[in-house]
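Bit of a strange request maybe. I'm writing a small parser for structure token strings and I need a real example to test against, not something I typed by hand. Could someone generate the tokens for this chain?
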Amino acid sequence: MIENPSAMRTKKIARKHHYLPQGYLAGFTDSGTKDGRFFVLEVETGNSFITSPKNVAAERDFNRVEIDGKDPDVLEQALAPFEEGAAKSIRRVEATGVFPSEEDFSYLINLLCLIAVRNPHFRKSANRSREQVVRHIAELLVSDKKVWEQNAKKAKDAGKYMPSNVSFEDVKRFVQEGEYRIEFGAEGNIRTEFHVFNSLLPILGKRLWSLIIVPEKLPEFVCSDRPVTLVWKNPNLKGRPIGYGLRHTEVFFPLNRRRALFGVFEDPLPAIVILDETMVAEMNARVAQNAERQVFSACETFMMVYEGKVREVKCHRGTVE
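Reply from user aminoacidic:
Good idea to test on real output. This should exercise your parser:
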């Protein structure tokens, strides 16, 4: 007889992790809920389909960690309450139409920061930089036999495994040929991302923020898989290196179909800004151009500025998922 059947069950570990919270994406669906639908426009092909937030902006094991005594999805579970709190803050901003309270603004700016630094694009970029460093270190280690032997001895003394049947010449040839792949564990990526998050959040807090509102009769905001945008105020500076801490830059973050945050360091806009159609199209262009793969729109058509003109973009009714 089994006294506690539930104890015999294996806990299901979440493997599909959203780097854009479903509660956030819900604001861009037709119903404003997680079960709502929106059009997904594939940037590369121009193809589109209709689906719900659960089927986009997710990667397998994106938040997976290996910690003794903890479930692999412990980070995914830890983020859930914050994501729900942020979704509630967005709904309050939608309902009131006023600049968010201190608590709500804290949720929103933290959400913005998390989305800015925790996404596949940032992770791939960071890993490319880390890989370059590792390859450079490897080249330095095999640049001289004495350097290699000294570091090999240090590694052995530290308890690292060093095969005795591999010569310095073998290692040098291996490094110089470059026919190897460097992989980084999720824990290292997550650690890097939260380190950047801790550095970036105070910088974002120093910006002067406005709540952007789109009137009901005007076209709506779209979202993308990289919705936080950073641009120079002067379009002539486009293409130059840019950072969240640099002056004369603008940060735009759509909260849902008719609300957004806009932040600068100087010459702030009023706390509440009502946009016209042209400015909605300009912000949509920023979001679409910043997309990695996909743009999300509750409407079959949306407006964006392209080549200096306001244009209508149509999402064809494709597959429904």
